[in-house]
Amino acid sequence: MEGKRRNLKRLERSVPEGFVFSVKANRSVTHIRKFRETEDIVERFYLEVSEGLGKRLGPVLFQLELVEEGSA
User: Fold this and answer.
1) Residue 54 lies in a domain
2) Who contacts 23 (Cβ-Cβ below 8 Å, separation ≥6)?
3) Residue 9 vs residues 16, 37, 41, 43: alpha-carbon distances, Å
4) Domains in the chain, number
5) So what's the pLDDT on residue 2?
6) Containing domain of residue 12, as a range?
7) Are 16 and 55 in contact, with CB atoms under 8 Å apart?
8) d(Cα 57, Cα 72) in Å, to the nearest integer?
9) Using CA atoms, how far apart are residues 33 and 35, in angstroms rounded to an integer?
10) Residue 72 is assigned to a structural domain of this protein
């Protein structure tokens, strides 16, 4: 995990003032676990990106799985 934070810090320092990053949450939260028992995963993810990107962290995207009509 430390390597990821280091990479995020490097990114954070490489962009102009006012720039923010949008990050995408891991699909294990949305597609595999379907938001069930994911508190720890989401907490670790947010801690990692917020520590790495700091004030440059913008929106966090949770891409939802497509549900076909009649399959839910």
Assistant:
1) yes
2) 49, 53, 57, 58, 59, 60, 61
3) 14, 29, 21, 19
4) 1
5) 76
6) 2-61
7) no
8) 34
9) 5
10) no
Q: Read off the pLDDT of residues 29-71 as tens digits, 9 standing for 90 and up.
A: 999 999 999 999 999 999 999 999 999 999 999 998 887 777 6
Angle at 50 between CA 4 and CA 30, to 5 degrees: 80
Token look-up 């966090």 returns 60
Give the global pTM. Answer: 0.78
**How far is residue 15's CA from residue 10's CA, in Å, rounded to a whole number?**
9
DSSP string computed for the chain: -HHHHHHHHHHHHHS-TT--EEEE--HIIIIISTTTT-HHHHHHHHHHHHHHHGGGEEEEE-PPPP--TT--
